[in-house]
Every structure is written in structure tokens, then in C-alpha cells.
Amino acid sequence: MSDIPEDCPGVGTEHAGQASACQGCPNQSSCQSGQTPAPDPNIQVVADRLRNVKCVILVLSGKGGVGKSTVAAQLAFALSLNPERQIGLLDIDICGPSQPHLMHMQGEEVHSSASGWSPVFHADFPNLGVMSIGFLIPSSNDPIIWRGPRKNGLIKQFLTDVDWGDLDYLVIDCPPGTSDEHLSIVTFLSGIPRTLGLIVTTPHELSLLDVRKEIGFCKKTGIKIIGVAENMSAYHCPNCQCSTPIFPGSTGGARKMCEDMEVPLLASIPIEVGIGVAADQGRPINSNDGVSHAIFSKLVSVFENYCKLNF
Ligand SMILES: Nc1ncnc2c1ncn2[C@@H]1O[C@H](COP(=O)(O)OP(=O)(O)OP(=O)(O)O)[C@@H](O)[C@H]1O
Asked: For this UniProt entry, what's an example GO CC term (predicted)?
């Protein structure tokens, strides 16, 4: 499944192995013959290692720069506000890790013990452990130029070699699009039915175009999409009190897209100066930063309620 083509008709479907997208796919012959390809043995290894994680939240976007890392960081912070919850935050954006900055943890190093790599715990939130390639490289200014197999190997290590312990939520900040890393994480997590996809988009059509593909991809790979968070929905001016849609949705925005794709729209997060400030300070947004604080609290309730009912 790690080399799944973008337009894969899906294993076991009528056109499995026969579509143009199947040309060159390593699973083409088994799909054609109706056999199910042998599962990747790493799937079971990951499922065993993460058996004490109650819920995995994959934060995904079709397009880059829509605020996925910011949403992942603020969601992890919002979940950590309850000290009784144990939270993990995994940054698998191998070539552009943002979480050390967004968590104000630059320069931290990963320690290893007999039970594996220890996540780095946030100074203000001891119930929030973070893992990122940013902790493994000597300088955040060094470019990471790795080919797919090496990136996939590190993602596997993050899932199998990190001693996450007992977690209520593991939030995973994915790279944009259907890149190698993206395919790997979805494959490795396919043995964990407690995985939920949170899709981040802006209202702009360019972002929605890619998000539609992303939703289709999740549906094909069996990732349950809990819903969509529309980010940068509008800018509310604190001086004139006007609300301006900076990225107007020419096709009806995220709401219409969610209706069409039959996925819930969970949140509309405005553009707020406080979000950028909190990001640079590596702290959770609060009520002084604007309305987004309340929006993230509601998002936490959505996850809490879903998990209570389903897991
Ligand atoms: N709602 C918001 N209001 C104000 N600024 C925001 C908001 N959301 C994100 N930003 C800012 O937009 C920029 C891009 O955000 P971010 O890095 O989270 O995007 P991304 O989708 O993870 O990007 P990439 O695809 O490169 O990983 C950052 O400077 C961030 O502070």
C-alpha cells in the first residue's frame, strides 16, 4: 500500500488492477487476480507499539501553507490543558519540521533508553510529549534533503521506536499532499482502527481542490475522517469590527465542499494576529488572542465525545 497510486480504484473494487492508475503499481497483478496483497509486516509492529494509545489524530491537508502545523500544535495544546490527559505530538514533516518552533522547544534533544527514544516533554505541559526530526538534526538551519525510503524509515522509527507510554491522544502533523511520508504514515497506521483524520483547508478553491483529493485518499485507505477544520476563514478587524474573507471561496468554501463530500465541517478558524504571536512564542492561544481559543476548546469536545462513543 505504500506505493498506492493517486487514482487507485481500491482493492476489491470492480476496476481493481485494470485502471490506468494501476499501471506500474506493485499490487496490480494481485488486484487483477482478486487476491489481497500481503499486508506490510510493519503494520502489526506499529499496532503493537501503539496499543496503549487511545486515539491517533492525523492532521492532514491537501495543500501546503494552509495552517496544518499550527492547527496540530494548537490542538495538542488544547488537549493538554487538562493535565489528566496524556498527549503525544509527532511531527512527520521530515523536510520542514515546524513543531520544535511552534512548541518553543528549539535546541532540545531526544534521549534514548532501553525502551526506546523518549519524546521531549514540554516545559509548561509535562503531559505533552513531542517528537520531531527537528530534535535529531544539529541545526534547524540545516536543510534535510532525503529521498523517500529514508524518510519512510524514519517515520517507521517514530512509530515503533518511540516510547510514547500510555496516551489519550497522539496528534500527528503530516506533510501536505499525498507525498511519500503521507502514504507511509497512512499505511503504518492502517492496523489501528482508532485513527481519525482531521483535514485542514482554507476556504480558497486552490486548497479545496487538493482537499477533495485528500478526502478521497482517506476514504480509499480506510482512514476515518472525523471532519474538516477551515482555517483562515476570514479576518475580523478589531478596529472597524468588519469581517473580511481574505481567501473567498468561489465555489462555496469549505461548507459546500463538506456537504458535497459528506464530511462534517467541525470548525472555522479566523485569521488572527494572536495565532501567529502564540505560534512564535510556542504557547497555546488564550482568550486574549481572540475567538480561536474557544474554537479549539470546541474541537477538543468533538474528539472527546467521538472517542467516548466509539472507542
Ligand atoms: N488562523 C491563522 N491566523 C493567523 N495566522 C495563521 C493562521 N493559521 C496559520 N497561520 C500562519 O500561517 C503560516 C503557515 O502556517 P503553517 O506552517 O501552520 O502551515 P502548514 O500548512 O503546516 O504549512 P506546510 O505545508 O509548509 O507545513 C504560519 O506563519 C502561521 O503562523
From this structure: cytosol
